[in-house]
Amino acid sequence: MSTPDPLPTWNDGTTKRAILTFVESVTTKGASFVPAAERIATFDNDGTLWCEKPMYVQADFILHKWGAMAKQDPKLAQHQPYKAVAEGDAKWLGSITSHVPELVKGVSEAFGGITVDAFDQEVGDFFASAKHPTLGVPYTDVAYRPMLELIEFLEANEFRVFICSAGGRDFMRVVCEEVYGLPRERVIGTGAPVELKDGKLMRTAGVEHPIDDGPGKPVHIWQRTGRRPLLAGGNADGDIQMLSEAKFSLLVHHDDAKREFAYDVGAEQALAAAKAGGWTVASIADDFATVF
Amino acid sequence: MSTPDPLPTWNDGTTKRAILTFVESVTTKGASFVPAAERIATFDNDGTLWCEKPMYVQADFILHKWGAMAKQDPKLAQHQPYKAVAEGDAKWLGSITSHVPELVKGVSEAFGGITVDAFDQEVGDFFASAKHPTLGVPYTDVAYRPMLELIEFLEANEFRVFICSAGGRDFMRVVCEEVYGLPRERVIGTGAPVELKDGKLMRTAGVEHPIDDGPGKPVHIWQRTGRRPLLAGGNADGDIQMLSEAKFSLLVHHDDAKREFAYDVGAEQALAAAKAGGWTVASIADDFATVF
After folding, report:
1. B170:A226 CB<8 A
2. Does the CB of B118 have a partner CB in chain A at under 8 Å?
3. Positive/negative CA dihedral, B224, B226, B229, B235
4. Alpha carbon separation from B242 to B9, B98, B137, B246 (Å, rounded)
5. Reported CATH class of domain A14-52+142-287
6. β-bridge pairing B231-234 and A194-197
7. Is B181 an 8 Å CB contact of chain A?
8. Least Cα separation, residue B85 to chain A (angstroms)
9. How far is CA A121 from CA A24, A60, A63, A193, B35, in A?
10. Closest chain B residue to A158, measured at CA
11. Which residue in the set A116, A215, A218 is minimally distant from B222, CB to CB?
């Protein structure tokens, strides 16, 4: 090719070619052309755009918070979840990361009754100091380079890319510009209820329903964009409904224990749906020339 | 000036100059510069971007719908609101347009249990046939030309313009591209609950809370953009909280009975707040060189 490769960190192969062919088909005049206004791309975040192992980034954030709260008020350490954090109860902590709704609820409760700005500040402080436990880098550096390239490529082709995360919307928004080059309004995610109280925007306890997972993803995407995704990317069972709505569905497969993590747990049904539906599977081992 | 006037349908005066000065101040390097990512502009729709008299466009839509339903099932005409429509009860109909929540609820009930696509189609059919009762043009032609220019001017200066309407989000989205040149995801508004049922996105009865009016506007804007508006425009009391959140607040004043409609009812507190808060008031009579 004479034009520069828009996806240099993707290895040549059927996956890369499928992406390039699809984007060309919807941006070139002809039967499959899609007007720019309808070019909505949605990506799950954890495990799709950045590393979700050994635990969700947001889980580490809430553990930090619970630990700090237990330190400040030792009585708290007699109860869960503060107890587990204070005692380093790996079994209890290991089980929580697989329960997104409870996790989101826990975050929301820990941060209910504070202003949206105070929450922003706490999240910013976390990202400024915390590091990924095995990669040893700030969490802002654990996004997959090939996926960053894909976002940039789609935006250059007049797609608007949205991050459609089961995790907390207001959590991701603090770093979405720095990590993904996307403005805050492009983050769709599970929300905390917010109210205007004495002229201040306050977070209240609880979570907004539906949460942005499973059947909630197409609902959130419709509510936020008024459209179905033209292209969607995910990596887990909670992404199936979103991927089913898209014209082009990309499933990231975690099969690279050496450079990232290898696991199918929580993605078994998604992998089966990919096979049945003819979705494009991005193997981290085979398709990513570079991971981070 | 040597550069072309970006707002030719605004008369020269303090209002136009205030807008130009503000936009220049936030886009020029210096103490008041605001990064592009933070340039969010939000506008109320009815009475701010397009004509809301003698009744909300969406009110006319629902009256059309109720009328069609009553025709199809004469038993319905024994009950309100179908009775009022069937009988042309001006008093009942006149009172409904001042009750946004009931109106939105009425729309939602009339269209609950149908797919989002079927609703889209019904709205599209309405806009294709209905005309403004006094202006005699399609409703897609009742936007204020100076406000269209302002939207274009802001977008050219890397603002993202959002329509923050108390009215139905999914209603406005059908024509936002044609009328305002804005993609669907730029419409914030009162939503109908949506659920994924057997793989279909269905509208359900009721409205999402809070509705996008009064204190709900800053909440919706935060939920949708993660920011407060840098510039906001409104025209009525339900816009006060949104206008209070913005750095630059523009209040459209309906004082032109000749070219549009003259009324302060429902805007009394907003006009007082504008005076107290030093907001910029756009007089349709004085500041708009052209209205439509």
Report:
1. yes
2. no
3. positive
4. 26, 20, 31, 7
5. alpha beta
6. unpaired
7. no
8. 30
9. 41, 16, 17, 18, 19
10. B183
11. A116
Best to test chain B binding among A34, A171, A196, A203 (most B CBs inside 10 Å)? A196
Instruction: Answer yes or no: do B191 and A223 touch at CB < 8 A.
Output: yes
Instruction: Specify the CATH number of the domain B14-54+143-287.
Output: 3.40.50.1000
- In chain B, residues with a C-beta closer than 8 Å to the C-beta of A41 are none
CB atoms within 10 A of CB A122: 18
- For residues A239 and A255, is the Cβ–Cβ distance under 8 A? no
Q: Give the helix, strand, coil percentages of chain B, each rounded to 5.
A: 45, 15, 35
Q: Is A224 on the interface with B (CB under 8 A)?
A: yes
What pLDDT is attached to residue A211?
A: 93
Q: How far apart are CA B215 and CA B238, in angstroms?
A: 8
Question: What does DSSP assign to residue B143?
Answer: B
Q: Is B149 helix (H, G, I), strand (E, B) or coil?
A: helix
Token pair, residue A27, equals 């941006």
> Where along chain B do its domains lie?
14-54+143-287, 57-129
For residue B164, give the 3-state DSSP assignment.
strand
- The alpha carbon of residue B183 is apart from the nearest alpha carbon of chain A, in Å, by 6
Band (pLDDT 50/70/90 cuts) for residue A72 is confident
Strand arrangement, sheet containing B231-234: B187-190, B160-168, B40-43, B231-234, B248-253, B280-283
For strands A280-283 and A248-253, give the pairing.
parallel
A170 interface with B at CB cutoff 8 Å: yes
- In tens digits, what is the pLDDT along chain B, a chain of 292 residues? 567 999 999 999 999 999 999 999 999 999 999 999 999 999 999 999 999 999 899 989 988 988 888 888 888 888 777 888 888 887 777 776 556 666 666 666 788 889 999 999 999 999 999 999 999 999 999 999 999 999 999 999 999 999 999 999 999 999 999 999 999 999 999 998 999 999 999 999 888 999 999 999 999 999 999 999 999 999 999 999 999 999 999 999 999 999 999 999 999 999 999 999 999 999 999 999 999 9
The C-alpha angle with vertex B220 and arms to B227 and B153, in degrees rounded to 5, equals 60
| AA identity, residue A7 | L
Gap between the Cα atoms of A205 and B27, Å rounded: 38
**Smallest Cβ distance to B226: which of A185, A224, A228?**
A185
Considering only the beta carbons, identify the residue of B37, B201, B215 that sits closest to A222.
Answer: B201
User: Looking at the partner chain, which of A170, A185, A218 has a beta carbon nearest the beta carbon of B196?
Assistant: A218
Of A160, A196, A223, the CB nearest to B194: A223
Please indicate if any CB of chain A lies within 8 Å of the CB of B225.
yes
